[in-house]
Amino acid sequence: MSAQAPSAVILIRAEKFVPNPATAADNAFQADIPAGQSADITSAQALAEMDAVADALREAGVRVHVFEDHDHTRPDSVFPNNWLSTHAGGTVAVYPMYASNRRHERRADVLEMLKSSYRVQTIVDYSGLEPDGIFLEGTGAMVLDHVSRVAYMAVSHRADSHVLERFCTDFGYEPMAFDAVDSSGVPVYHTNVIACIGTDVAMIALEMIPDVVRREQVRERLTVNGRKVVELTEAQIREFAGNAVELCGRTPDGRRRYIMAMSARARRSLTPEQVAVIEESCEIVAIDIPTIELAGGSVRCMIAGVHLDLRPTEVPPTTAVRAINEDHPVTADGRYVDAGV
């Protein structure tokens, strides 16, 4: 298993997809549904795109866990990486979400699948910080370097530096927070729209970090172990070029196959030189998802990577759950409970 590139992923197949009106104010990447297009047509197009992502990843030899979502009150459930992350050694994190209508995206059935199929020892739940107005939206808010153990984060009201410190203490990462803004001075809402870290290559819009000293610190930290950096422009970020993820698949004969999953729109924005650098270490797999991108996220946002070891099916799981607040609903036998499921 690659430390950086998971070989399994979780996808949510949301039957009632729509760009979330509760997140439009601070997500500069979000767009409206085309005028005159019905909600049913939008949902049907999004479902086809979700299925295309799942099929492309399976074709690349990635293990894909798909969960259906029939709930029309969860418009952003297609983006599970904001509430869930998994980590080598058997730990899982559950995160506090900024938009109130996103908080019931957290699903007990997803956690139960992880506990039954993978070696999960502990679930650390930060969602109890929501009543205090403190948020850290998972691997949207953070871009994690699992090799060098660094958590990169563009500070925003969806990404609190104090919770970052807490996460890094709990999970053994070095925090690297910075400000990132677009050319109009608007803060970047999620770090994973401007940065992607693979095993041997990273893509990042360093020009969007206004503090020159911090910008160079980020560059140096990314390259300290020989990783190559592809510098993206703000125009490419607008095309979701930063919202990609490295995964580890298998060829038909069982050999490892490293891929960089991104949208077709993101792939079209890259220069031949940038593509050449990326493909030195992994193959680009590009999927067209224009409807889903209306919600302000792309392929990376759709994927919750599984960095866990598979569990022998005959061994019953035992998992400890550590909630951040005392009032969080956790049963006596350690199961995570979500009333929204």
UniProtKB/TrEMBL annotation:
It comes from the Bacteria. Signal peptide: none annotated. SUPFAM superfamilies: Pentein. NCBIfam families: citrull_CtlX. PANTHER family: AMIDINOTRANSFERASE. This is Amidinotransferase.
